[in-house]
C-alpha cells in the first residue's frame, strides 16, 4: 500500500503515562517484574530506599505504587468517568465502597463506571512464593458525557475466555491476532460495556483492541468513520512500519480514522499494539486528581461530597485489602451477585 502523507497526524515517544485524545483521558502502562512473594502478598525483598506510599521510581524493575506492604493502589475515590483495566500478566484484587469485590488476572478486563462517585482499591497481590511475579496491565480512563456524570457506579467483568479473539492471515500465511475489548471487527462484536458507558452506544464507535503481529506479518486496520480519535500505541517489539513509514519502538501515533492503515512487522519477533478509537464527546473537561467533571464548581462539589459521604464509606477493615491465597478469579457485585469466568 502506498504511503499516504496524510495518514499520520502526530507521533511521540511514550512514557509511563500515555497521551490520549477525547474521549479517552489517559492511559497508563504498568509493567513490574516483582520478585517472589514473601507469603503475605508483598515482595520478598527489602523496601529500604523506596518512598513508601508514593513509590513510582521503578527501582529494581518494580514499584509499590501507593501500597505500604502490598503493591497497588489502596482505597481512593473517583467521580465522572470510567476506568478500563486490561490485565496482561499478574493479578488485581478489587474492593469498593459499594461492597463489591473481585480478583481478575491475565487476559481479563474490568470496566468500571465511577459515575456519581465510588471509592475502590486495586491491589496487586504477589501469590507465587517460588518464582518472580510479573505484572503487566493498562489502565485507560474513558470520559463520561455530562448527562452520565452522576449515574450509579457499576462495573462489568470481561473475562478472558469471553473476549473475542480474531486471527487474520496475510498473503504469506503470517498471522495477526486481535483481542476485541470494545467495538467490532470482521463481523465480530465485543462484549457489552457497562450500560451507562459512552461505549454502550454503537454510534460512538468506541474501539479498544490489542493487536499482535507475528514475525513478518502484515495487516490493515480497517477504515472507520471520519473524524474519530484514533491512537495506536506500539508498546512491544521492534521494526514496525505504518503505511511504509517506520515507527520507532515504544511510540504512539495519532492516525486518521477513515482510511485503511497497513501495519507491517519487519522483525523476527512478535509486535504488540494497543489501539484506542472513538467519536469525541466534545464537552469541557475539568480534571483534578481522581475527579473529571465539566466545570470547576463541579470539581469543588465532588471534593465536598466525598468529604461528607465518602461515596458510601469504606466497608473493609484494611485500605489495601486482598482476597487470600486460594481465591481464584471471581467477582461479587454490590447486589450480591457472584460471577466467575466461563471455563
Automatic annotation (TrEMBL):
GO molecular function: metal ion binding
Keywords: Iron, Metal-binding
Co-factor binding details: Binds 1 Fe cation per subunit.
SUPFAM superfamilies referenced in this protein's UniProt entry, alphabetically: RmlC-like cupins
Cofactor: Fe cation
Pirin C-terminal domain ranges (all copies): 210-312
InterPro entries tied to this protein: Pirin (IPR012093), Pirin_C_dom (IPR008778), Pirin_N_dom (IPR003829), RmlC-like_jellyroll (IPR014710), RmlC_Cupin_sf (IPR011051)
Domain Pirin N-terminal: 66-142
Pfam families reported for this sequence: Pirin, Pirin_C
Binding site for Fe cation: 76, 78, 120, 122
Family, similarity comment: Belongs to the pirin family.
Protein name, per record: Pirin-like protein
Annotated source species: Leptospira ryugenii
